[in-house]
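Pasting as-is:
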Amino acid sequence: MTIHHEPGEGRPLARRFRDFLIIGIAVAVVVADQLSKAWVRRNLLLGVPWDPLPWLRPVLSFTYVTNQGAAFGMFPQLRAVYPLIALTVLGVLFFFFRGLAASGWIPTIGLGLLLGGTLGNNIIDRLWHGFVTDFIDFNFWPMHDWPVFNVADSSIVVGVCILTGYLLFLEEPRAATPAQDNLPAAGEGTAAAGVPAAGAGPSAPPEGS
């Protein structure tokens, strides 16, 4: 009987390392996101742009705004259900993309970024502060009208792009196993049972007969 192994099967250490990598990337995103937001709330005035470097002003500024909507301020009227939506999304991430992460490093990185961004914005900020802190404000065309965002938003967008690109362009389709692979070759089964194959001559009589 032929046994077909799934990709990643039989490599529990590699799978476990990828799980730790997903968690590590997510933790790094959450730490960077929360530290940057805490600094903004402590040092910047609400709604007043601040330029960390004068030559950087044509590109971006730091503008402290609060956001009760989804990513980039969308749908603020649904803010009460966003933590529940985020928990549902986290469940989908673990049950669906965790299996995908076993197939390579690219989806592993994408999943870690997506998980960290979801935790930073929709779990910690909304449950702890009741709103999301945004501060990255683009000043150049055509992004000057883009909503103010944060590190977690960026992590979510990059993670989604990585996973989408991997699914569309890089994932190798699983080869279908034809049923004929498990069937005996012509005459193989009958020969094993002591029955001569079709077209074969009579078997030799036993010795001593």
